[in-house]
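Troubleshooting log. The previous structure file for this entry was overwritten by mistake, so regenerating from the original sequence record. Sequence copied from the archived sheet and checked twice against the printout by T.R.
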Amino acid sequence: MRDYNDLVKIAARAAEHGAQYLRAATRPGWQAWTEKAQSDFVTDIDRGCEALIAEELQQAVPGSRVVGEELTPGATIAQGEVVWIVDPLDGTTNFLHGFPNYAVSIGCAVRGELSAGVIHDVTRDIVYRGWRGGGTWRGDTQVSVSAVTDPRRALIATGFPFRQLGGLERYLRQFAAVTRNTSGIRRAGSAALDLAHLAVGHFDAFWEQGLAPWDLAAGVVLIREAGGRITRADGSDDVLSQGDVIGGNPVMHEWLLNLLRNV
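Regenerated output below.
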């Protein structure tokens, strides 16, 4: 069994190669987009990037498993000594439209516990990494969540429930409540990068409905190692299943959790 720092180095190398692959790719025309669900697109670029990353991770750690958004979406995460949880292109719609906000996200669970994570901001070429007991780093600088404790001064990140429109009315009520009580909300289209920005203190809190494990596995490690909290909407720490997520620095997490419970 390798140590967590070793695992994060392996993930960082694989994420870098994935980022290089995406930078070299030619964005396909809209006729080549496949719609997995309403407004949820995938292309051969997503699949090719995931295959490249999966091969590298499994060569580096023989016997490890890869659970990815495109190639193994139905796999069970809890099983296995080392399980990589991969989103090869978080922010596919942004990528397809040329909007420069997308990332490669690689989380690592050891015996079912999230232990390492890397998010590579592709267009800015910034690497966020964290591992259990090792803190969170933006490049070579250790970072922490924000110190904002007044909601009226807080900047909140979110994602719209574009996959599960049945929750749209509830989300709009939540959006209105957060808007009335904070200094602003941002929605940039990549949950992985939202979580990275939360970990380094650019955002003070975050919420989104219906996130999958590959959307947030790496970001959970970054936030927790940076001193923040991220949970399900019921306050539970088990985030490796599909569902709603709330994160923030400890004070803002508690505030947002209580606010959304009552909406």
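The chain has two domains: 4-143, 151-261. Archived copy saved in two places this time.
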